[in-house]
Amino acid sequence: MNSVNVAVREKAEKILSLLPGVDCAGLGGCGKDSCLACAEAIAAGGSVALCPACSQEKVDAIAEVMGVQTVTVKDEVAYVFCAGFSAGKARASQYKSCKESVEAGFSRGECKDGCVGVGSCVEVCKFGAMKVEYGKVIIDADRCTGCGACANKGCCPQHVIRMVPRDASNFIPCSSTEEDDEVTRKICGFGCISCGECERACPEGAVSIIDNHAVIDYEKCVGCVACTVKCRKKIIKDTLHDLTALKEKVAFVKCSGGFRASAFYKERGVQTCQEAFEKFNPKDNGLCTTGCLGQGSCTAVCRYDAIHIVDGTAKVDPDKCVGCKDCTYACPKNLIVIVPYKGQKQVPCSSKADYEDKAKVCASACIACEDCVNNCPNGAIFMKDKHAEIDPELCENCNVCQYVCARHVIKEQEVPEYNYLQREALGMREGE
Fold first, then answer.
1. Which class would CATH give 344-412?
2. What are the angstrom distances between the C-alpha of 190 and each of 119, 218, 233, 304, 312?
3. How far is residue 117's CA from residue 101's CA, in Å, rounded to a whole number?
4. Which homologous superfamily does the CATH classification assign to the domain defined by 3-66?
5. Which candidate, 294, 298, 196, places its Cα nearest to that of 251?
6. Over 70: is that where the pLDDT of 421 sits?
7. CA 170 to CA 225: how far, in whole Å?
8. pLDDT by residue (tens digit) across 129-166?
9. Nearest to residue 41, comparing CAs of 75, 9, 73?
10. Which are the contacts of 284, defined by CB distance < 8 A and separation ≥ 6?
């Protein structure tokens, strides 16, 4: 053995003592079969930062062993780019590995691009940074060394685990390639519908639509709130800001008197709004033809616990609602609309019936008296299909309409005054 080989071997031994020494089964980011092979590659002239699991301190020490200048470590952690349960996770639990589950195929209505949740990634993680809870892969960023083994295609056949900068704050946890946004909405409440709003809103050009889902370029991302605010479905994870606060619009239910209909359907064993809508004619049963069915199909799809059935009628908590629109698609009567999150007045009624018919079925319906229309100083209120409508662009929240409404139908959308970040993000000022 010549002196050159001896020198390389000695360096490799010193470098090996600085590496994690856990062997990532050939799946790690260094591309080598073992830590020894990685150490030998570095000793032979490879990058002193070849092992992605090494800290800056360790890389500096390796550079000293090699007698070369150190390099800046690319500090990354693993992240699961799937937040849903639509890839058949419950069904996939019967398989021994994620690869076996994927090869078995997906059932109709399942996301073919999502995490199957078997946990092959947990098995290959040598640092105890991963676990599976109720079919969801959880990564402990503090324990994750960024070795990249879990993100290797040999471990994650869906390639939903990818490496991101440790200091990244914005994430779009979806990998769906589905082209039809309606299909995506039906399959997964967490799915990106590739509307492109985030891409257009990003001031740094850091967001792009790739394979029908939004992707963040972390080389450009500065962690601002633009994409989070503009996301239609509010699926973007933001670790710096309150997701429930960052929104331009929220849902509103255009009905406040569904208690009679709700009780009627419950007495007959109805389970969903769709069932009530399809099986019964409200007019034949003395019920409002346009009112809330009160069976909670909207509450079932809300991911933010922002909508509940109160006195037989769906009611939105604007403080929790993020304006994702999922509830609007769940309502078979199209009673839920999206309105500005700025505190204006709203009319929770959509009845098209004459006054006499309204009075028979609802005590809180707009009777189309037009007092609000005639007294609004801004001309923000008008009649549509025999009920009042308010133009949010013209409404100044002056309270006149509420004062003159004999039935106290008009409601105010409250916005918490402490919500400074929300107002700042939308360019609003105090009092606007």
1. alpha beta
2. 20, 21, 8, 11, 28
3. 9
4. Electron transport complex subunit B, putative Fe-S cluster (1.10.15.40)
5. 298
6. no
7. 9
8. 999 988 889 999 999 999 999 999 899 999 999 999 99
9. 9
10. none
CA–CA separation, 209 vs 426, rounded Å? 23
State in words which class domain 248-341 has: alpha beta
Compute the distance between CA of residue 117 and CA of residue 110 in angstroms, rounded to an integer. 13
Chain centroid to CA 418: 24
Please state the domain extents for the chain.
Answer: 3-66, 76-238, 248-341, 344-412
pLDDT at position 427: 56
- Do the domains 3-66 and 76-238 sit in the same CATH topology, yes or no? no
Strands 130-133 and 161-165: unpaired
Who's near 393: CB < 8 A, 6+ residues apart? 380
Letter for the amino acid at 229?
V
DSSP 324-387: --HHHHH-TT--EEEEESS--EE------S-HHHHHHH-SSS-----HHHHH-TT--EEEETTE
Confidence of residue 430 (pLDDT cuts 50, 70, 90): very low
By C-alpha distance, which of 242, 272, 115, 104 is closest to 190?
115
Amino acid identity at 204: E
3 state SS for 205-263:
CCEEEECCEEEECCCCCCCCCHHHHHCCCCCCEECCCCCCCCCCEEEEECCCCCHHHHH
In this prediction the pTM is: 0.72
Cβ–Cβ contacts within 10 Å for residue 377, how many?
Answer: 9
What SS3 class is residue 132? Answer: strand
Name the DSSP class of 77: E
Return the structure tokens found at 209.
């639509």
Q: How far apart, in whole angstroms, are the C-alpha atoms of residue 21 and residue 74?
A: 19
**Nearest of 62, 70, 6 to residue 39 by alpha carbon:** 62
CATH topology of domain 76-238: Alpha-Beta Plaits (3.30.70)
Q: Which of 380, 394, 381, 295 is nearest to 335 (CA)?
A: 295
The answer to whether 129 touches 163, Cβ cutoff 8 Å, is no
Pairwise CA distance, residues 78 & 129, whole Å: 9
Residues 42-74 pLDDT 10s: 999 999 999 999 999 999 999 999 999 999 999
Structure tokens at 300: 């079932």
- C-beta separation of 188 from 89 below 8 A: no
